[in-house]
């Protein structure tokens, strides 16, 4: 992997979102432009939308994350939202969890190349061994990974007391919340709320569903206990 000078224009708002991390964000955009399609990280039609659809869309959810929080990003894929979060919020302690080998290789390469202090773990969030390895975090994020019902099952056991699950969703978020609210409750989650991030900054703000753990549920027995 080597630095690639991308051809995509840098949006004016990128400096507001990434601050001191802008130069690294530009480098990351160049890497995605050069290698993203080739390595199966983004589709050909997404190249022109790397900044708005991927980098900025991911980074602005940092508005919801408290300072110096520990964050586990579930199903990081090509690095979203984890890598843009690390670039915009260097104060965060980030763990990227991804099951696919070729994607964990990419995440590791990018983190080393950009000098990001993130951990990359290969595995699935629902696996007992992975849960034991990564522990719990103040915030558990995900983007385009699964429906909310499944996300609650996978992510809520990783959320520490007082923390929250943040699921980046699209225009159908409200319908998904209505459909999956009961399943989320069975997984030990609170009633979901919806927040818009990047309002006044992005042309299309990022929609995030927020769920806080009320109970943890042991899948094998159905036993519930207060989140702690």
UniProtKB/TrEMBL annotation:
<keyword id="KW-0949">S-adenosyl-L-methionine</keyword>
<feature type="binding site">
    <location>
        <begin position="125"/>
        <end position="126"/>
    </location>
    <ligand>
        <name>S-adenosyl-L-methionine</name>
    </ligand>
</feature>
<keyword id="KW-0808">Transferase</keyword>
<dbReference type="GO" id="GO:0005829">
    <property type="term" value="C:cytosol"/>
</dbReference>
<protein>
    <recommendedName>
        <fullName>Ribosomal RNA small subunit methyltransferase G</fullName>
        <ecNumber>2.1.1.-</ecNumber>
    </recommendedName>
</protein>
<dbReference type="InterPro" id="IPR003682">
    <property type="entry name" value="rRNA_ssu_MeTfrase_G"/>
</dbReference>
<dbReference type="GO" id="GO:0070043">
    <property type="term" value="F:rRNA (guanine-N7-)-methyltransferase activity"/>
</dbReference>
<keyword id="KW-0489">Methyltransferase</keyword>
<dbReference type="InterPro" id="IPR029063">
    <property type="entry name" value="SAM-dependent_MTases_sf"/>
</dbReference>
<keyword id="KW-0698">rRNA processing</keyword>
<feature type="binding site">
    <location>
        <position position="75"/>
    </location>
    <ligand>
        <name>S-adenosyl-L-methionine</name>
    </ligand>
</feature>
<keyword id="KW-0963">Cytoplasm</keyword>
<feature type="binding site">
    <location>
        <position position="143"/>
    </location>
    <ligand>
        <name>S-adenosyl-L-methionine</name>
    </ligand>
</feature>
<feature type="binding site">
    <location>
        <position position="80"/>
    </location>
    <ligand>
        <name>S-adenosyl-L-methionine</name>
    </ligand>
</feature>
<comment type="function">
    <text>Specifically methylates the N7 position of a guanine in 16S rRNA.</text>
</comment>
<comment type="similarity">
    <text>Belongs to the methyltransferase superfamily. RNA methyltransferase RsmG family.</text>
</comment>
<dbReference type="Pfam" id="PF02527">
    <property type="entry name" value="GidB"/>
</dbReference>
């Amino acid at each position: 992997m080597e630095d690639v000078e991308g051809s995509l224009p840098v949006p004016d708002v990128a400096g507001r979102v990434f601050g001191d991390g802008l130069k690294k964000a530009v480098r990351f955009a160049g890497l995605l432009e050069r290698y993203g399609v080739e390595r199966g990280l983004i589709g050909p039609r997404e190249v022109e939308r790397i900044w708005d659809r991927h980098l900025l869309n991911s980074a602005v959810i940092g508005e919801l994350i408290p300072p110096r929080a520990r964050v586990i990003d579930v199903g990081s894929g090509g690095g979203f939202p984890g890598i843009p979060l690390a670039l915009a919020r260097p104060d965060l302690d980030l763990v990227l969890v991804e099951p696919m080998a070729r994607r964990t290789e990419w995440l590791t390469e990018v983190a080393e190349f950009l000098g990001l202090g993130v951990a990359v773990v290969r595995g699935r969030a629902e696996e007992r061994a992975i849960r034991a390895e990564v522990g719990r975090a103040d915030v558990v994020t995900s983007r385009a990974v699964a429906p909310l019902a499944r996300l609650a099952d996978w992510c809520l056991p990783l959320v520490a007391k007082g923390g929250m699950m943040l699921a980046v969703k699209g225009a159908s978020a409200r319908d998904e919340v209505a459909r999956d609210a009961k399943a989320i409750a069975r997984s030990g989650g609170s009633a979901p709320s919806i927040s818009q991030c990047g309002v006044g900054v992005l042309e299309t703000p990022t929609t995030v569903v927020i769920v806080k753990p009320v109970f943890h549920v042991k899948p094998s027995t159905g036993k519930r206990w207060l989140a702690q």
